[in-house]
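Standup notes
- DV: blocked on the single-chain target, sequence here:
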Amino acid sequence: MPRMQLLKWLEKHPCSAIVILADSAVWELYDTLFDGLERYASITLMTIQGGEQAKSLETVSALWKKMLENRIDKEALLLNVGGGSVSDAGGLVAATYKRGIRYINVPTTLLAMVDAATGGKTAINFNGIKNSIGVIALPQEVFISTLFLQSLPGEELLNGFAELLKYALIADSALWRTVRNLTEINGDTVLPKWIEGAVAFKKRVVAQDLHDRGVRRCLNFGHTAGHALEAFFYGRAPLTHGHAVALGMAVEAWLSHFCGSLPRQEAIDIQQFIARFYPFVKLQDSDVQEITALCLQDKKSSFGAINCTLLAQTGHYTVNNSVSSEDMQMALHSVFS
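- DV (later): unblocked, structure below
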């Protein structure tokens, strides 16, 4: 349970204050899980609405302001309680406030558990570009409890399941063979050992490549196309991050076939599985061109080429693949035409 983990941590790590940054909806359900923290330091509670709207300069500015008003000093601890947006925005607040204070993540969504809360990537969206402003700053701890999954709506479970699927496709072919037979995704079908495996893999990768120049980019499979799709649909019919990444993995599976060694049937199998849970849409030629332009804005892309992580085969990846705009457009047409 996160409460016991937190109390044990606080016994060994004194802090001048505890600032709790919580998703307001989560806090209404689980506030009593954090009883007892006041024995260790004064508490300042800040709640925000979860979701992508939390990852804005306006939100982060308001949080900095409140911390200054409450005279929070450099020896304080920031406790982020919520989904990936809270981990991202809260981590950035902690990394920049007075040049950095300690923080702990308590992820309450599947997406945050397997991805956002671990690895130290903090970011906000800016000028319509996903995660374009941020720093890398590792949390002191990440305390995971699957208790939170029982209250998640189905859409939010699917949001996080996309990251579990990514882990299976890049690093665990046995898990891919298991999950591809799923007919439903809920709090009972998502097994804790899958979460543990994904988190352990991410920790190993981050330990090798904290600043995302080499092997850590394996975690970006599906994200180059996925972030572009997420940005494209934001002002139209918004996609969740997980939905966009799932579609992005279908696109990048086809890129892996066109530009590498992934067998065509494996690309088909991946797309068909994703389509079982994540609706696809039709795109016009002009849409494909706009999405490709957004891929070129991705923070990994450079020198006029799109940078992607691709699959050599299921369970095996290659990083830093330069993909032309023409190849990206061909893959988008293969998925969305």
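- Follow-up: The radius of gyration is 20 Å.
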